[in-house]
Structures are given as C-alpha cells and as structure tokens.
Design goal:
Blueprint: E1 2-3, E2 6-7, E3 11-13, H1 17-40, H2 44-69, E4 75-77, E5 81-84, E6 88-91, E7 95-105, E8 108-117, H3 120-126, H4 129-140, E9 147-149, H5 157-167, E10 172-174
Parallel strand pairs: 7-10
Antiparallel strand pairs: 1-2, 3-4, 4-5, 5-6, 7-8, 8-9
Helix pairs in contact: 1-2
Length: 175
Amino acid sequence: MIRDGDPLPPTVYPLAKGRVWAMLAGSLVFVALGIVFLVAHTTVKMTAAGVLAVPFFGFCSLIIVHRLFRDRPELVLDDAGVDHVRLGRLGWDEIAAVRIREQRVRNSSQWFIELVLHDPAAYLARAPKLVRSTASMNARLGFGPANMATNTLPVSPEAVLDAMRRHCPGLAVQH
C-alpha cells in the first residue's frame, strides 16, 4: 500500500528464538528419555518408545537447530504479499482471506494463521515439499494448505493480522 506517495516498508518478524530454544530443549529431553528407555529396555513398550523417540525427536532437534542458526526472518509482509519461511511467497492476490485457527490436542492448543487461498491447487503445485506432504492431513483436520504456526513468531497472531491489513487494506478476515 502506498501512503503519502511512499510504499509501506516491509514488516519483518524474526524467529522467536527464546521459544525455539525451549522447543529444542524439550526435543532433546525426549531424545534423552528415549535413550534411557533403550538402555533400560525393561519392557517391550519401553524399548518401542525408545526406538520411536530417539529418531523422531533427534530429527526434530536437527530441524530446530537449523532454524536457530539460519539468518532469515520467519515472516515478511510487504505490499506485494507474504513471504513465510515454510510456506514460501504468496501474493495478496492469491489470498482470499485470513483467519486465526486453533488446533487443540488434549490440554494444549496450537494457534495458526490460516491463509485461505483462491486456488489452493495452484499453490500446492509450486509449494515447498513439506507443505505438499502435509496438505492432505491439514485437509482432514479442516485446514487449508497454507498455515503459519504462531509459536515461532515474536508477536501475537492478532498483531500479524493487523500488519497484514496495513499492507493489504481490503484483506478479508474470517472469524
């Protein structure tokens, strides 16, 4: 959007490193527990838990370390659209609406900003591999393919939506 003849500068959100360091610590705790289960192997269930925990949380730890040490913002909003570290680049003309969504699992919640797309199939054709591979699972949960987890952002989901509306004033927000 142009204000007083000048385009609005990009809104840049870095990775919320404190939160991500906490995720790394949690992941490493589960790796350690898995190792303990493998070493103790007192029951088949403990051994199976260790066999599953070590590679899964080990892989998670590697991904988290990579995210911590790369020098790239988590999210950039500008007058042309959205550039998200996981979703890639989406133009405002591709986005029909945005909404804040909650995924509840037992006693915890994960908040997302969902980008409701005009043509999800066209986006998926060029989307990063991870997005394509999770699209069917997202659909079963009632989500579209373009979702941004908010736990790695340094601001609230509402603050991100406000910034989106500053860059794209006609953007529809669904509740």
